[in-house]
Amino acid sequence: MVLGKNKENIKAALSIATSTLLGIAIPTESNAQQSSVTDDWDIESAFLFYSEAERVSAIEGIISANKTFDNDEVLNLKFTIDALTGASANGAVAQPYAQTFTRPSGQGQYVISGEDTPLDDTFKDTRVQLNGQWTQAIAQDYILSSGAHFSKEYDYLSLGINSNLAVDFDRKNTTLSAGFSYFHDTFSPEGGIPVAFASMLIGDSNDPDWDEAFAKTRLTSSDTKTTTDLMLGLTQVINRRMLVQMNYSYSMVDGYLTDPFKIISVINEQGIAQDYIYEKRPTTRVKQSTFFQSMYHFEQNILDLSYRYMWDDWDITSHTIDSRLRIPVHLFSSNESYIQPHLRFYKQSAALFYQPYLLEQNESLNIDYASADYRIGQMVTLTLGVKYGMFLEKGNELSFRLEYYQQTPENAGFESIGVLNDLNIYPAVKAIIAQVSYSF
Amino acid sequence: MNKIIRLCFIFITSISVMGCASLGVEPWERDLLAKKEMALTSSPLDASLDDHIYFSKEASSGGKSFGGGGCGCN
């Protein structure tokens, strides 16, 4: 009883907090009135833990509240907070010897042991994100949904808007939709924006001349990028058991797309690093994708299967196959519960300017762009997971998800040189994803 | 090669949708389709968390929904 009352109180508090943010008046004088208001809100929450072996760890919490108004207008408010800590690959290749790098801030160095992949272990960030979405019918069979996005990290600010119009045809069996989103992001990295292809300054940061020398490798304190996405969609009911969706997306990204924390090793003919230079990427990127999804209801189970093909003008192409099979079970109680295995396969090709390292003799060549970030290199990733969900009283749902995620970077045809033959310059990244969700 | 894959994909999906003799259901036949778990995004928070992970770790994003900015993920 006490637990149930506390749960109602939490829901009431969240509902009131949400409404206060919106400026919606909530009558709180009587319990009866409060109850009727809180019953209108559907609240979902999730807590996620993500951990890579020897690299990044992150925790993320989300609270999402839905309210349906009298005329079927739906308001969704979502609050997300995440914290990230750990080590991230800085782009340099492993060497037989220890390597010293300067931290992005310019204050201090870190040393990577021989044969180890260079990781910068100073990453620490907290992000807060707010999303609001309003959905309503604007005419018979016409549904308009519009929203706004705000997120702030220590060194990153993102503002966005989106809108989508969906039109139903044929007894609502066919839905056509068209939407757009626009994001404006400002990046103010620790230590500022480095000069592209400038050598990383390595030495004694307590030296009186250090700050001046470091400043020469910096261009500015911040930069921006904009992202405009356009999307066309078709949803079709095939029969009583099957539903399909097809989307086409066109995305234009414009501005600072370089990663200011990433460097590239410049090696000699023996594969020994002679220098580390800051990477440089183009200032525009146009991505397109086609997406196909089908939902199929078997006698008991539900199969969710999707495929995405993406291509862009950086010469990256990718294939993504995602599948979930929801299987109803009765494990611990008479209440309905389910198990949902998850399998995701992803494969991407390398960007045109991806270089795991640069050869010293080629450095003088007038290259326009180069990045050693494995995330735009050739790669295969696999996700294997399972989710268990159970329904509680009043339709509340509690679920647990555990997944294993592995990234396997591949050599996109680059010749291995000298000592690099004996080193792992395409190390795999392995991560565990654990999540608990509760909706009430 | 990629163009061929794209064209095959569009062709197959078009045929699979348009080629069916009778598409759709009557309103009273929506018992299974109306289930929450039959929604195209049946777990929005899972999708949101997954999008954040894959946006940070891979070169592709979006497709199902908008894949725009939102984090300076390292």
From TrEMBL, chain A:
One Pfam family from the record: DUF3570
InterPro entries, alphabetized: DUF3570
Protein name (Swiss-Prot/TrEMBL): DUF3570 domain-containing protein
Automatic annotation (TrEMBL), chain B:
Superkingdom per UniProt: Bacteria
Keywords in alphabetical order: Signal
Residues spanning the signal sequence: 1-19
Domain DUF4266 span(s) in chain numbering: 25-74
InterPro entries: DUF4266
PROSITE patterns, sorted: PROKAR_LIPOPROTEIN
Name of the protein this chain belongs to: DUF4266 domain-containing protein
Any single Pfam family the record assigns to this protein: DUF4266
